[in-house]
Amino acid sequence: xxxxxxxxxxxxxLLYRARPAMAGLLLxxxxxxxxxxxxxxxxxxxxxxxxxxxxxxxxxxLRDHRSFTILGEGGVGNLWAQIxxxxxxxxxxxxGHHDLRSRTRELFTETVSRDLVSxxxxxxxxxxxxxxxxxxxxxxxxLSRVLVGRMVIxxxxxxxxxxxxxxxxxxxxxLRIFExxxxxxxxxxxxxxxxxxxxxxxxxxxxxVAELNAGxxxxxxxxxxxxxxxxxxxxxxxxTETSGLASLLMVAGTETAASAMGRITAxxxxxxxxxxxxxxxxxxxxAAVPVPASGPAGGDDRTPRLLNPGEADPVxxxxxxxxxxxxxxxxxxxxVAADVEVGGARLRAGERIMLLVWSANxxxxxxxxxxxxxxxxxxxxxxxxxxxxxxxxxxxxEIGALLRMLWEEDRPLRIVRRRAARGVLIPxxxxxxxxxx
Length: 437
Ligand code: HEM
Description:
- This protein is an alpha+beta fold.
- It contains 18 helices and ten strands.
């Protein structure tokens, strides 16, 4: 029997171009996960440590804060402590983390996130919509980087650099900020084997953080309460905490979001699922006349209808499903803090484990625009437990806003040209040119 691929050939090519060795590990993980009962779900891989592609084991690890730590060798907290200083340790996993998460619960609610996207993006998204509507092409990968750069500028209150010509933020300025975030994240590129940085890597990262955080003291003191920095101040976060949080947002929320935006766009086209999404959107256009709960979820029926209770908005469903299949944060690392048995394997304190999140999520099946919520995966693409992605609602709002613009005209898209980014931590399209057919 020829084994079926867990995702599209284009997605596999993209993973391979990003990091061939990692692509191999992710594919092996997905294959093992789709053949259950073939040994322990937790295995030891030479040079890497423990790995698992099992969603249940992954969630167990992420929720077991006694046995696993984000701070030890293997976790991102370990990286940040070297760059920002030891005060980060408390903010990342100790009492300070609990306090920070409690205070920041309201930072990215669904409503706040939609408003943030609208304020930072509306005019730029409208300009892109005009290009497509007038029959032109659009580089969705480039647009995603510009939009995410604009979001960072808006969130961190990054002022126009001295001597910068043109309006702020223009595309060039937004791209410059995006690339600065990319450089910061790339410090972590060589850390698959170890999270100990060289002094040169630490110095580079510190320079980038200083550059990005230049506008924060002023924003934290003076920005109005409806901005992120203003809200941080009102929530009682100090300047140090706010700056630490800002670095975190920058690294966690730039490449991941831009990667998802381009890849979900390409998936919709490559799998033909864009037609299913358009049909479902047609089904709820107007949303004026309710249809019975047993009615079709989409189809070609143009009768306007309301979404049934519990039924997902077609675009939001695609966003969730697209995040499952792409899982831009392909891998989550943890250090083992105390000897523990998990998935039948005995892990010792000081070792590390890599959770192959992409494999765990992708193994559940191919991309389907109308696939319902999967209990097993939940939202593992955003992690789980106390470090569950803080910006999840913002990321979903960002992706949703892009997809709504791209498919606003009820016409399918065609991919004219594409190129995958080579040698990057987060797999992404560096070019993805689309047009309406
Ligand atoms: C599609 C886009 C995104 C994906 C796939 C993603 C994924 C993740 C994952 C897997 C984690 C957990 C990491 C771990 O446990 O080691 C995480 C944490 C985090 N994310 Fe996201 N993220 C995305 C977008 C964003 C955005 C837009 C922001 C904010 C602007 C953000 C802010 C954060 C923060 C602050 C954390 C750390 C939370 C903590 O340690 O308590 N993320 N993200």
